[in-house]
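Exercise (ungraded).
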Amino acid sequence: MIEIIIYGRGGMGAVTAGKILAEAAILSNNYPEVSAFPSFGTERRGAPVMAFCRISDEPIWTRAQIQQADYVIVLDETVFGNHVIDRIKTGGALILNTWKCPEDVRNMYDFGDRKITIVTADLTQIAFDLKLLNRENQPIVNTSVLGVIAKSSIKITLDDAKNAIENKFGKSTKTDLNVKAANMAAEQALVEEVK
Amino acid sequence: MPKKIVITGNHAAAYACKSVGVEVVAAYPITPQSPVVEKISEFVEAGEMKKFNTQFVCVESEQSAISGVIAASATGCRVFTASSANGLAYMFELLCWAAGSRLPVVMCIAMRGLGAPWTVWTDHQDAFSVRDVGFMQQFVESNQEIYDTVLMSYRIAEDPRVYLPSFVSYDGYILSHTMMPVQIEDDDKVAEFLPALKPHTDLTNMGTRPGLNPVTPPDLTIRPEGNTPGYYEFRYSMQKAHENAFEVIEEAAKDFARIFGRSYGNGIYKAYKADDAEILIFAVASVASESRGVVDRLREEGLKIGLISLKLFRPFPVKHLREAFSQANLVVVFDRDIGYGHEGILAYELKAALYPAEHRPIIRGFIVGLGGRDITPEDLIGGVKKAISEKDDRNVQMATHTDFIGLKLEQLGFTKGGD
Amino acid sequence: MLSSRQTAAIGEAGKTGTWRTMKPIMHDEKCIMVKTGKLSCLLCWMFCPEISVNRTIPPTFDYDYCKGCGVCANECPAQAIEMIPEKENPSCESDEGGN
Amino acid sequence: MVIKVKDLPEEEYILPGTRMCSGCGLQIAYRWALKALGPNTIVCNPASCSTVTGGVGGYTPIKVPVMYDCFETVAAHASGVSAALTAKGKDKETVVVAWAGDGGTYDIGIQGLSGAAERRSNFIYVCYNNQAYMNTGIQRSSATPFGAKTTTTPIIGKAQVNKNMFKIMRAHGLSYIATCASGYPQDLFEKFQKAREFNGKGVRFIEILSSCPPGWGHKVNESVEVTKKAVESGYWPLMEVIEGKLVISNPSKKYLDKSKRKDVRDYLKMQSRFKHFTEDDYKVWEQYIDDLWQELKWELEKQSDL
């Protein structure tokens, strides 16, 4: 079972990201069992939020919130901090939406000597470049992050991500843009080599 | 083709309504049940339930919601509603009415703690608070089980041997808002499992002009025209209907497994690694599903432990439970609810059920996760280990206090005495 | 038995004529309908709460169920209906009635 | 045109030998309402006098299907029946009636009624208003008029004026609203026929002033006369609001002229619940009636100006 926590801000679509990730996992045929859920609370626009996702090839029976995850995805760097690093399992990975490279991130925050793979991608820039914006002109990053995941050791391909995005939003030019952003994110993602 | 989709528990309930062809829905939103109402309105407005000419009555309160579906059920329609916590409490009077009128209303409860203090998070207090209104009551562990149990509930509730309303209870947020894969079945397969509704009361049946009159004299009156039924006898016949329900439920579970290839134990409880177990966990819903991983972990430590996850709470399957616990030495009951002034409701119901049994295991109850306090595997393991260590301690067995797991008294400024 | 279903019956509360202390009698010669020979006035029939006035010329009473309220006598424009004590003029056998 | 008595239908939907009190005004109203609505009628009945009078046990004097329900929920209940009829495609031929007392309408049931009215559920809502909780033993309701003695206003009488349900229902913008009185069966008959014709147009609201010999303390034989006096004094105007337009019904029309109105004291003095009245109390009533008609007149004038 792979456990994933997604951090974001209310309105960024962290919960939706979890749902699309779960869909993509099903579509991959590698993970027939999934569960995706928000951190149960009253969601307010702008406030930090968390979403959880479990994917597995065996039935998932635990209903508890994820304390430490194999993957922690951060959609907004401003919610990132040491408290987030604490939620990553040793041997796990951090996927961070930032313009910084993994090395900078490692230097800026206190990872100690924990064995954590850092992956970065500037999803916000990709969204601006593609004019992939929501109604409030905020960059949409909750779909492109799937491209980064496809580059990770999770057995979900870019095709699975594309299908999941299409399932969620239907076929449209906007959907195509989302898919394109995911592809770009996959290309541009920087994966730190773990020593 | 049946399709597997990733949906929340609330949406699973809504999809089940669509599959069974519910004709009248009346519901009022309350967290965390609201998405059920929203999804069904969406189905109705999008014309996806046109085949059944489904009417969605957008009522102004829970009381009106349940009243509306009672009336529609008495008019010969298949009906559905859903609620949570305080909304459910607001329905209380009408819940008795539905059961007393023997109407096969099916209702989902997205379980949530009852205020005050306000909480929108899960515990099972709301569902257990309505245990004696006369509804049948089923608890589920997953979104697929929500969908499947709603299907089964219609079949059981509408069976002429039963004709009782039914609750399907699932944890708020933990299932209601969690997305999981759910297989949505084809309509023709659902029709094979669930026959068309044959209502016992249909107000439109003008030929026979039946009224439905709840006013009854306390005693049987012999009148020139014949006997007048009495209230007391109606209560008896309701109890008989609950007793009849067991065989109907077991039949439904078997048929369900045959047609859809999925099963939930015998439809009454689900045993997990219980065959050789000396220690058994007894729980419902989210607590039961969390316990499965706990059983696995403790088995790795060499403990002969298993789980009895209760699916059917009303009628209470006394006979089945006596069998299920006939080998165990120790039963650890985790209640996400409490009978204030007594102990966890499951714990005391089980104690009563096993009291006359030939083999009586030690039963140890714990309260867990009220108001959505997260229940971790460690919490449950701690409970099991405590129960084992104190198993032979007569003082603990005789004690009348109730054990709470996962309290944060000091952190939150309470004293041990609760002040 | 499933639920409290009802069937419609006359005398659901028994023979309610036994509730009566005063009893209506019709003085046919005063009745407008008798005088005109037509189904015209019918006010006693219309106002009777207990559906115990028969729609005939002259109107007759269903003493099995008439509760003796006297609305008919009060509303008769010709004062053709008189209320007399039931005791001295019994017309209804005692019946236990409902309860 | 007022229908002639001889043209009223013979078919009865209530059978004699009921549990209702001798001289009950409700029974006259119920009888003629059902006659106007005909056999394809489903009645929903909350806790009230008519629940008990609908029969105890397996028998009923009512010949149309009646489903009884809880005190506060009749409007939701009727909505449910109505929705079920729509689902079954039987909503055109069958009419649904919610038949409630003033307690179930003015007080405990007002939320459900307002909700049903706003969402345009399709049924006729009837409030038979006997101006107190008669079924539980004559306790005050918010329909109890000023000064009336009840068992919860036992000595000085009710200190407040009743709620104006007619106006409250008008504010919901219903297709048809009417007032009736149990002493005017012909008027009542016609109004129920009209309400039936509005089938499909949401809630139709009819309020009936229904005399209650034990509750009002009038003689049983004066059950019809007492509501006639209520109308003749101008206290209870018979009227309709059809698609928003106010129409004063024939029996009440002439009371637009104050001089035609009979002394309300004749009405009040018939009833023991007003026996304790002083001159001041009578004046409150007279003022109430004057204000009532003044408002009606204004509205009629405004309508004719348009």
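Further reading is listed at the end of the chapter. For now, observe: Chains D and A do not touch (no CB pair under 8 Å). The first helix of chain D runs from residue 25 to 37.
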